[in-house]
Amino acid sequence: MDAVSRSHDRGTPLYDGAALRALEAEMAARLGDGFALMARAGQAAWRELLAHWPDVQRIVVVCGPGNNGGDGYELCRLAHQSGRDARVLRIEAHAPRSELAQRACEAYREAGGRIKAFSDGFGRAQLVVDALFGIGLSREPDADAARVIDAINASGLPVFSLDVPSGLDADRGSAPGRVVHATHTLQLLAPHAGLYTGAAARSAGSLALSTLEADEALAGAPVAAYRLDPDDLRGWIAPRVRDAHKGDSGHVLCIGGDTGKGGAAILAAEAALRCGAGLVSVATRPVHVPALLARRPEAMAHGVDAGGSLEPLLAQADVIALGPGLGQGEWGAALYEQALAASTPLVLDADALNLLAQRTRVLPAGTILTPHPGEAARLLGFTAAEVQANRFAAARLLAEMFGCVVVLKGAGTLVAAPEQVPRVIAAGNPGMAVGGMGDLLTGCIAALRAQDFPAFESACCGALLHAVAGDTAAQAGERGLLPCDLLDPMRTWANGGPSA
């Protein structure tokens, strides 16, 4: 097998609300006064605002009742002292409640700052700063807060959120009710796990971080997940040795392509080849064999009739990619049962997951599941909305339920496995929301598994490679992006990236 660049420490640590609150308390103790940390937050937010909107003169800061609102008062005080037309808007119910927010509000007033009651709009403002709730909100905003959030989103103005777009659950990445759609969000203290998956993709805008000089205190905090960025892909797949031969890179068997669905199996096979598998076989309906050979003669195509045996093909395979276009009829179910009976490592997708949902069973060690939210919901007995409401929990539960690796697809794809810290894929784009993209991912992960990557690492590296290839292909535009457009970029990134 090819040498693999082992990487168990790739990625940027992400933290949950409990870790951030503990860090905030530790920093307040170190500084001797929690207000000193709030002052740092206000200064960091003011610097970030100036970096993004240096020419803005009229600023409205919408403050909530807690410490996030306190950060907003501090920012607004600095903006006012700089000579900007800066003012605070709030509803009566959002008068400061915490001691620190009260101190920040008083300091703002003493500096000559103005506080106005929110009505319905923002006057002549050029920028809205969202300092409503921060990480503390995990419920649906009440009616008054929802009215403010609706007004922010309808304003057409750029929106700068402090720490978290208000209404977004910073742990789960979901929005239980109304949520601010930020242009830019400055995270404070540490990166928040929920800002990289699910609804956060729509709500958070561009992301930045200020640690408020808490890096030393952060070192011992528990990590909720690791974020994998495009740069993490470089060097992950080691170059082939000079005397390599095809047997070194493994043999992938793609099983799928029921009548009318042959393209799915072809896409999986092409991705496996482009991502470095030494040999790729395809077991599909006989009617699809001519098209497969015409498009990709490098794949070894095998027509399998209803009731046909996979035994000779299973015996030769190092990894089985099962499910693209498989169908749930008698033909697909029979091939599914044969594949699961083998001791060969499995990557399950599409109808293989739907068949698994119909009858839960013990899976071979090292199996990799690649569900989208709908398939995950069927496997768990949930709704897709419930999966999306807490993607981290859904991925962990699936991994524990089946004792395997799970790639929960979607914005901010998650990779989970028993006794592993989850990974979040910080790449990919909306243009990839088209049929066939998942088939490529299945083939990509299977190819890495065949090249001797462990199951969890195959899933992490494969999901990142697939997403980065999608971003490369989308440089020509997201709308109209096709799975085939990713094949050349997948090959490029499997070899280290454009500049390698």
TrEMBL record:
Its EC number is 4.2.1.136, 5.1.99.6. GO terms for molecular function: ADP-dependent NAD(P)H-hydrate dehydratase activity; ATP binding; metal ion binding; NAD(P)HX epimerase activity. Signal peptide: none annotated. Residues 229-497 form the YjeF C-terminal domain. Keywords: ATP-binding, Isomerase, Lyase, Metal-binding, Multifunctional enzyme, NAD, NADP, Nucleotide-binding, Potassium. (6S)-NADPHX binds at residues 67-71, 134-140, 163, 264, 325, 372, 439. Residues 20-220 form the YjeF N-terminal domain. One of its GO terms (biological process) is nicotinamide nucleotide metabolic process. Pfam families: Carb_kinase, YjeF_N. The keyword Nucleotide-binding applies. It catalyses: (6S)-NADHX + ADP = AMP + phosphate + NADH + H(+); (6S)-NADPHX + ADP = AMP + phosphate + NADPH + H(+); (6R)-NADPHX = (6S)-NADPHX; (6R)-NADHX = (6S)-NADHX. Its cofactor is Mg(2+); K(+). K(+) binds at N68, D130, S166. Catalyzes the dehydration of the S-form of NAD(P)HX at the expense of ADP, which is converted to AMP. Together with NAD(P)HX epimerase, which catalyzes the epimerization of the S- and R-forms, the enzyme allows the repair of both epimers of NAD(P)HX, a damaged form of NAD(P)H that is a result of enzymatic or heat-dependent hydration. Bifunctional enzyme that catalyzes the epimerization of the S- and R-forms of NAD(P)HX and the dehydration of the S-form of NAD(P)HX at the expense of ADP, which is converted to AMP. This allows the repair of both epimers of NAD(P)HX, a damaged form of NAD(P)H that is a result of enzymatic or heat-dependent hydration. In the N-terminal section; belongs to the NnrE/AIBP family. This is Bifunctional NAD(P)H-hydrate repair enzyme. It comes from Luteimonas viscosa. The gene is nnrE.
